[in-house]
Structure formats: C-alpha cells, structure tokens
Amino acid sequence: MIRNEIGAIIKLSSIYETESWGFNTEQLFLNQVILIETDCNAIDTLSLLLNTEKQLGRKRSSNNYESRSIDLDILFFNDTINNSKELQVPHPRLHQRMFTLVPLNEIASQKIHPVFNEKISTLKEKCSDKSKVNLFKLVN
Predict the structure, then answer these.
(1) Distance CA 41, CA 22 (A)
(2) Which of 44, 47, 110, 135 has its Cα between 20 and 30 A from that of 85?
(3) Burial of 122 (0-12, 13-18, 19+ CB in 10 A)
C-alpha cells in the first residue's frame, strides 16, 4: 500500500519483535523501518499513512499509548525539522526507543539526526531504553 500510495521503497530493515514502550502489556509487537522515496511533501505523506492505517483497520481511540493493529510513523523526512501541530519530524521520541533505533540503525546507521547532530549508531549506543528487541523469526 505504501508503494502504491506514497512512493518507492528503497530499503527495508528486518522485522523485530519488541516489548511495549510507554505502557504495560504482555503482548509483543512487530517493528520495521523502511526508507521511501516520494514526490509527496511531509504533510501529504502523513495523510496517506493515516489513510493506510485506517484501511488496515486502525481505530484511533485516544492519545494514550495502547495496543493497536498498526502504527505508521514518519521518523525523518529528509533532513527537515518540523514542529507543527500536525507533524513533528524528526520523530520527537525516536532517540529514546530501541524498537525504533535498532531497525533504523540497520538501514541508516550513518544518518545524522538533524536536531542532535549525531549518527543513528551513536544515538543507539547512548539510548537508555533496555527493552528487548529481537529479530523476528517466522515459525512454520
């Protein structure tokens, strides 16, 4: 759906099975980071991602952290810094979350975070999040 609606998928990280972040649940989550090339601007990309979530059954019920069927986030949009009400990029908490940093580091370890002026690999090393992030293996 992303390829059809937004643009070409350039890189995909592996899929990781991770613990929850920001709330407690026994449920594990699957996380992946993709690099997309698009002709859309950041706000249009966000709108298309939200529409994709909706088509895949996501129902937004609150602003609190909770289990959800799908959650698509924009981590970076080129080297843009945007702090509008609709969209904050870089994602304001990506540097605090191993479930984001591990797959991001896999495909873009040398990317410089435009706010912190540090490589993703460095942010991963400095991250205090100790939650488990394991390579997901499909079981037959």
Answers:
(1) 29
(2) 110
(3) middle
Alpha carbons 85 and 140: distance in angstroms, whole number: 44
pTM, to two decimals: 0.88
Domain ranges of the chain: 2-135
**Whole-number Å distance between alpha carbons of 37 and 77:** 10
Q: Which long-range contacts link 69-78 to residues 24+ away (Cβ below 8 Å)?
A: 73/49, 74/42, 74/45, 74/46, 74/49, 75/33, 75/100, 75/104, 76/111, 76/114, 77/42, 77/45
pLDDT single digits (tens) 70-116: 889 999 999 999 999 999 999 999 999 999 999 999 999 999 999 99
The string of pLDDT tens digits covering residues 16-71 is 999 876 666 678 889 999 999 999 999 999 999 999 989 988 776 666 655 566 88
Query: CB neighbours (10 Å) of residue 128?
Result: 7
Q: Which residues contact 140 (CB under 8 A, 6 or more apart)?
A: none
